[in-house]
Amino acid sequence: MSTDAPTPTRIPASRYVVFATLAAAGCAIDLATKHWAFAQPSLAGGAILWWIDGIAGVQRSLNEGALFGMGQGATPWFAALSALAAVAIPIWLFGLRVALDLWMTVALGLVMGGVLGNLYDRVGMPGLVWGVDWPHEPRHQIGEPIYAVRDWVLWQASDRWRWPNFNIADALLVVGAGMLVLRASFPGQEAAPESPSPNPQ
Fold first, then answer.
1. How many whole angstroms separate alpha carbon 198 and alpha carbon 6?
2. Catalytic residue among 30, 101, 121, 151
3. Which of 51, 123, 152, 169 could form a disulfide with 117, with the two C-beta atoms 3.0–4.6 Å apart?
4. Tens-place pLDDT, residues 146-189
5. CA-to-CA distance for 192 and 15, rounded, in angstroms?
6. DSSP characters for 94-129?
7. Mean pLDDT score of the chain, rounded to an integer?
């Protein structure tokens, strides 16, 4: 009787496609919407373009911190963490075969799209400068490159309760993280390894 160990299940090629598509599309949509919002002269000076009057609209802001404005001024640290995540996610997903779980593949594809979209801003790729493209702030010099995430989505329950401005990348990160929490709370069955073909004795 053969004592060969069962052959591990291979990650379907479709999982690579799903992950790459979600990450690329999410990042592209995030960057396109940021570019649109920050190219509108009518939105200068904190002006608001309401989609639903008093509830949801567009208002530009810059975030030098993390998600929803936490950790202001620590942009280099968050940029480094984002770059680390951009490397670690594919390794975790495909190197450790987490991609056998479609749910995890979708969740991490969304997270990757959000990470890449905000990382683009944190390393200064939009090319904005203080005092030219954005009002000068005391802790920056006029003409200094802006290393901050561009936020533009405004949502509020009322004028007294306003959610911090965010962007599509933030939304992708929240949805992806929520999916990860759900998977951890309600784990599914792990993919079973392929059974080897029976060998004659």
1. 11
2. 151
3. 169
4. 999 999 999 999 888 999 999 999 999 999 999 999 999 987 65
5. 17
6. IIS-GGGSHHHHHHHHHHHHHHHHHHHHHTTTT--B
7. 88
Secondary structure element (H or E) that encloses residue 163, with its range: strand 161-166
166: which 2 tokens?
A: 């965010």
* 151 counts as catalytic: yes
179: tokens are: 């999916």
Active-site position among 30, 101, 121, 170: 170
121 included as an active-site residue: no
- Indicate the residue type of 20: A
To which residue do tokens 């963490």 refer?
81
pLDDT digits (tens, 9 = 90+) for 51-80: 999 999 999 999 987 665 565 667 888 899
For the stretch 81-88, contacts whose Cβ atoms lie closer than 8 Å and that sit 24 or more positions apart, written own/partner, are 82/115, 82/118, 82/119, 82/122, 83/119, 85/111, 85/115, 86/112, 86/115, 86/116, 86/119
**pLDDT tens, residue by residue, 88-136:** 999 999 999 999 999 999 999 999 999 999 999 999 999 999 999 999 8
